[in-house]
């Protein structure tokens, strides 16, 4: 049924079509209709008798109408198209003229850095071949370049507040008051014929007792349970029996790989453990000194029950069993020969992560932690050796971002997070000391990227207040990648390890890199040149101080 669209569109919801006095079906006449008044109107077709609100309407032109309406419609579309093209042309011309005026169009980036030639062999979650990608030319983002002067003011403010003040080292009695249980378990004297701090501890259990039943590492992590199942099976075979009592050998590490994250510590660990005289903890990164002893399992989950020191010592039982076998050998017993096996531990958080102190230690001085990790390590083992692997802090931060960011990763997103973190850091240093900000748990959790981890010299100076300089070996990832054999020999010499055969050395130095960057992260490309320039300005005074402390300008990480 056909109805004039001008009159029938106003019909009531009920079926009044047949009562519509203006148009009566196929006999409707445009000349006689009081509404149409002789004009050409588009008739309305409907499939049903009752026109509902959600009915499917189909508008068609009557075949008997003239072509004037058609040409009018085409002319309207053509005019709209022409008008749109004119507007787009004006916008493009305006953009081109504005860009040329400010010198921003088709001009090479002033922050371009040349490619860095290196051996693509390794990096912590990133290989050195990935590192080369960071120095390829990238497209300039004009808006970010415009932001540079205001961000430079923030960096200048931070630089003006930098003071490297020597911290006051706490005395031993203060440490005992803070951790009485730890001091009750670990003695102050160790076996004389072992390089490691080892001692015998009486075991009170019997053959039916599970020595690892309460170990928190085994309870909270399924992947560690296989290790502890093995330890249960061999536990009784390695007890030392004397005068109807049972003793187990306990050991702490002889050396620690303490940092930094995303600087190649995993690769160093994987190569070093291939040496026949080196043993590591059953778990690569226990994070006991920095997190687990405070009850931190995952940083996002808050606090749980604290891991006692016994749980940490259990991680070295496999190494202790091997050391005990050597100590009970005839050569050692009769001739007092020194055991050459050394134990290491490789938690990359040990150097820098003191975020938990504020929840456990009182007597803070102006927001600075009264006790640090190194205070306790030194109290138990003052002769410990420490290995630090560092990397250009600018590239370290980008690698850190790519590894830990969960979604929406991009060079632009990284830039925004860097700017936000710099603003937060500036707010802190305006009111507190540099050390207080570096160890500020609230600030570190608020910053979208971990700027503070790249402030190497702040942490190193605090470690040097406790340990002697000759107890600390500082390496650069860039050197390790370009000449791995040389850096590994430095490590062997530092740890007083025995010589290797050519086959053993080849196995250590020529094995593939560990923990390289994920392909999906590699596809994101390098950071923005402006971001790189901002970070170079921020880290420059810290790198300068680091180079002075180490008497090595390589730690300036200058590139031309």
Automatic annotation (TrEMBL):
<dbReference type="Pfam" id="PF00685">
    <property type="entry name" value="Sulfotransfer_1"/>
</dbReference>
<dbReference type="GO" id="GO:0019319">
    <property type="term" value="P:hexose biosynthetic process"/>
</dbReference>
<dbReference type="InterPro" id="IPR052654">
    <property type="entry name" value="CS_Sulfotransferase"/>
</dbReference>
<keyword id="KW-0472">Membrane</keyword>
<dbReference type="InterPro" id="IPR000863">
    <property type="entry name" value="Sulfotransferase_dom"/>
</dbReference>
<protein>
    <recommendedName>
        <fullName>Sulfotransferase</fullName>
        <ecNumber>2.8.2.-</ecNumber>
    </recommendedName>
</protein>
<feature type="domain" description="Sulfotransferase">
    <location>
        <begin position="253"/>
        <end position="517"/>
    </location>
</feature>
<keyword id="KW-0812">Transmembrane</keyword>
<feature type="transmembrane region" description="Helical">
    <location>
        <begin position="78"/>
        <end position="97"/>
    </location>
</feature>
<keyword id="KW-1133">Transmembrane helix</keyword>
<keyword id="KW-0808">Transferase</keyword>
<comment type="similarity">
    <text>Belongs to the sulfotransferase 1 family.</text>
</comment>
<dbReference type="InterPro" id="IPR027417">
    <property type="entry name" value="P-loop_NTPase"/>
</dbReference>
<dbReference type="GO" id="GO:0050659">
    <property type="term" value="F:N-acetylgalactosamine 4-sulfate 6-O-sulfotransferase activity"/>
</dbReference>
């Amino acid at each position: 049924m056909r109805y004039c669209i001008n009159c029938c569109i106003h019909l009531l919801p009920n079926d009044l079509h047949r009562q519509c006095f203006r148009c009566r079906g196929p006999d409707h006449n445009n000349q006689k209709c009081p509404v149409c008044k002789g004009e050409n109107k588009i008739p309305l077709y409907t499939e049903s008798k009752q026109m509902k609100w959600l009915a499917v309407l189909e508008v068609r032109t009557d075949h008997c109408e003239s072509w004037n309406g058609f040409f009018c419609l085409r002319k309207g579309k053509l005019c709209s198209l022409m008008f749109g093209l004119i507007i787009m042309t004006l916008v493009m011309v305006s953009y081109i003229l504005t860009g040329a005026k400010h010198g921003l169009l088709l001009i090479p980036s002033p922050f371009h850095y040349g490619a860095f030639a290196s051996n693509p062999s390794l990096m912590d979650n990133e290989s050195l071949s990935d590192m080369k990608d960071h120095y390829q030319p990238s497209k300039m983002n004009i808006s970010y370049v415009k932001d540079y002067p205001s961000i430079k003011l923030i960096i200048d403010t931070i630089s003006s507040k930098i003071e490297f003040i020597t911290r006051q080292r706490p005395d031993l009695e203060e440490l005992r008051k803070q951790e009485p249980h730890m001091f009750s378990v670990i003695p102050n004297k160790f076996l004389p014929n072992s390089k490691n701090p080892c001692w015998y501890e009486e075991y009170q259990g019997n053959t039916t007792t599970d020595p690892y039943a309460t170990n928190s590492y085994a309870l909270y992590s399924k992947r560690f349970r296989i290790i502890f199942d093995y330890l249960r099976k061999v536990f009784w075979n390695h007890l030392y029996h004397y005068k109807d009592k049972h003793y187990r050998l306990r050991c702490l590490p002889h050396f620690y790989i303490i940092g930094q994250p995303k600087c190649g510590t995993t690769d160093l660990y994987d190569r070093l453990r291939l040496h026949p005289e080196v043993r590591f903890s059953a778990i690569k990164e226990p994070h006991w000194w920095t997190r687990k002893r405070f009850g931190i399992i995952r940083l996002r989950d808050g606090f749980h029950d604290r891991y006692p020191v016994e749980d940490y010592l259990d991680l070295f039982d496999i190494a202790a069993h091997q050391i005990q076998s050597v100590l009970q050998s005839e050569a050692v017993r009769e001739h007092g020969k020194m055991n050459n096996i050394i134990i290491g531990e490789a938690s990359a958080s040990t150097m820098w992560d003191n975020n938990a102190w504020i929840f456990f230690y009182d007597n803070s001085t102006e927001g600075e932690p009264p006790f640090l990790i190194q205070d306790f390590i030194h109290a138990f083992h003052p002769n410990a050796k420490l290995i630090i692997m560092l990397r250009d802090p600018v590239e370290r931060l980008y690698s850190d971002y790519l590894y830990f960011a969960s979604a929406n990763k991009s060079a632009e997103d990284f830039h925004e997070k860097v700017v936000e973190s710099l603003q937060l850091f500036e707010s802190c240093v305006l009111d507190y000391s540099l050390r207080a900000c570096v160890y500020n748990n609230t600030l570190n959790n608020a910053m979208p990227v971990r700027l503070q981890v790249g402030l190497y010299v702040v942490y190193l100076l605090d470690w040097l207040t406790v340990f002697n300089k000759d107890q600390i070996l500082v390496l650069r990832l860039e050197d390790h990648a370009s000449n791995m054999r040389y850096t590994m020999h430095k490590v062997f010499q530092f740890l007083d390890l025995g010589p290797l055969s050519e086959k053993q050395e080849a196995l250590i130095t020529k094995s593939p890199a560990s923990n390289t960057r994920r392909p999906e992260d590699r596809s994101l490309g390098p950071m923005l040149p402006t971001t790189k320039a901002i970070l170079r300005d921020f880290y420059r005074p810290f790198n300068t101080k680091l180079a002075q402390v180490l008497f090595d300008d390589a730690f300036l990480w200058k590139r031309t």
